[in-house]
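User: I'm putting together notes for a lab meeting next week and I want to include a structural view of one of the chains we've been expressing. I don't have a solved structure, so I'd like a prediction I can at least talk through. The sequence is below, exactly as it appears in our construct file.
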Amino acid sequence: MKRVKTTLVIIVMFLSLSISTYAQESKIDTIAIMILDRMADMIGELNSCGYTLHTSNDVIDVELGPVKYFNVHNVYMVGPDKMLINSKGVKGHQGYWYNGKQMAYYSYTQNNYAIIDAPSNIVAAIDTVNKTYGIDFPAADFFYPSFTDDLIEQNDEIIYVGKTSINEKDCFHIIARNEIMSTQIWISDDALFLPLKMVIVHYDQNPNLQYEATFSDWKINPELPNIMFDFTPPEGANLLKLIAK
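Assistant: Thanks for the context. Below is the predicted structure for the 245-residue chain, given as structure tokens.
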């Protein structure tokens, strides 16, 4: 009987160690997932929206080291196939118009533009233009239906940190991380569960570079005229031919 007891103890200890090791390798907090899913469902239910996005990102300068650049973007969307982005920042003043068939780019600073054929919905259009031409759309990940699943797939840990406050707004704080980066997300603690802020830190770069995006002035289901998503080149503007990356 003593041998049987010892064997059982060893088996239980082995199972406990295996479970503990697995939990350390992949820690997914169910509360964090519930909050993320609620946010994704809320965004998916919107007919239209508008918001302001302030972003900053670190760039390595050969002489100066890490330099932080700031941008501001005014974004409007009507699901599933209309989008307008007006951006000001380090690259000057730029605009993007998407009407379900084409995406237009225009530089107010340089007075030139480009027209790109695009798929028939916002997410597919963003994905195609990004992969083909390397054009980034700030914080667009939040509007992907697969946002939570992508976060789980790409990270070893997703942790609900707790409640906090940003600009006097109560919010939930979530951290997702893997070996090379961490992503912090703040989601409003109210009826809408909308994103308020995201910070990405890259561990694989020295120094650790950061990207930050802050949402404000959310407009929920505004009535937006279709004509605002059609681009008409200003007189004298130069047509560019974009080259696939």
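A couple of points you could mention at the meeting. Residues 42 and 192 are 7 Å apart (CA to CA). The two ends are 71 Å apart (CA to CA).

User: Perfect, that's what I needed.
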